[in-house]
Amino acid sequence: MKYGLIGYSGKMGKAIKELFDKNGHKLVYWKDSEKEEEIEKPEIIIDFSIKSAFLETLRIIEEKEVPLIIGTTGLDENDFEKLREISKKVPVIQSFNFSIGINIMTELLKKMNDFIDDSYDIEITETHHRFKKDKPSGTAILLKNIIDKEVEEIHSKRLGSEFGEHEIEFATTGEIIKLTHRAYSREAFTKGVLLSAKRINNLENGLYTFKEILMR
Ligand SMILES: NC(=O)C1=CN([C@@H]2O[C@H](COP(=O)(O)OP(=O)(O)OC[C@H]3O[C@@H](n4cnc5c(N)ncnc54)[C@H](OP(=O)(O)O)[C@@H]3O)[C@@H](O)[C@H]2O)C=CC1
Ligand SMILES: O=C(O)C1=N[C@H](C(=O)O)C[C@H](O)C1
Question: Which ligand sits nearest to residue 166's alpha carbon?
Fold first, then answer.
């Protein structure tokens, strides 16, 4: 497939290109804060950049009329409204976490809602590399939104080169339950991006989560 990459010079951009190269896909359009180049029209565009680039990404999708896969974090409800709007014209797959493990963990969390009552303290901790710009992580916000009960706090740690760890703790008097996911490399995320890229052209227009793609 011929694809475009917004944020191509970043950590995720480079990791996506590496995996897509290995799988025979061709980068034909790329953009970062300083450069924009197109050698052929892309069949899909992938955005792993920064929230401040979001409106520009929407303009590009509108202009090229190609499906979008977006993993950029920091998007708010207003941005999601805009994604819903553009997804009337092209398929869009969005997730704050393209790893399979986190998407399994969201199912476990939903199940926890059946058992956890007001006697539990619930805390979320996310740990990422020192270069991560947003806080808390998009994934921590996604996990918090699944839990029916009040979450005391999201704790954010920025430590060295950690690829991404998320832990949810449920503690009551006398015992604690911990759910933890840890990415060992960016392949945890890029595999999900590749799977989405393979499937997006078979989708009707609309806004999809990565989990919906996984469960098809
Ligand atoms: N959903 C998921 O599974 C995952 C999501 N992420 C998210 O992906 C995003 C990128 O992460 P990461 O690669 O680590 O970050 P980096 O800071 O390494 O890379 C960001 C990239 O975005 C580019 N960029 C900055 N401004 C613009 C702009 N105006 N237009 C286009 N490109 C721009 C940067 O270019 P320049 O160098 O020129 O500034 C750079 O190429 C973050 O939001 C992160 O949270 C990360 C991992 C997994
Ligand atoms: O910036 C990162 O690196 C990551 N960001 C995402 C987030 O904010 O949740 C996903 C992953 O944890 C890695």
Answer: 2
